[in-house]
Write the structure tokens for this entry.
Amino acid sequence: MDLEAPVDGWYVWLGVALLSVTVLAFAVSLPSQPPPDATAAANAIDRVASSSHQAAASYDHDAAAIKIDTKRVVMRNDGGTSRESVTFGSLTPVHAVADEDKREALEQITYGHHPASVLDNYSFGPQAVLEAAAAARERIDRHGAEWRPADGVLYVRRVNVRGETLVLVDEDR
């Protein structure tokens, strides 16, 4: 008795074609890159936030979009989405500050300028900046953060303004 299927049988060719299409569909559905590393971003933030004095860091990433709230970083690209919570402090996403002048002042502080020298250049005082940062955090806690385009570098800085600690986070300049 012959148990081998003839190679010229139409059902063999149909099975091979279906298997090929299935394998091709699987290969095409695989992401072209890994998801961004939100854990590394959160670790960079935690290193700065847990410092006992003023500190700063930057983190290069490959996210196409980023969402930063007061306790979490979420990053996404073509490879997927990753999220991680921070352990230390409450983050102040600089882009979320509503007042343009106060946001500009906080950006300058985030990128390395001394807080006192920055605030001396504006008509408002340190208390106004603290209130604007608190309002941004409260708004994010109530309504959530929004996705923003990302450009490759996340900046974080821990500063003391009038005895209050701010952990400022901003996405590229």
About this structure: Residues 38-171 form one domain. The mean pLDDT is 89. The chain has five helices and eight strands.
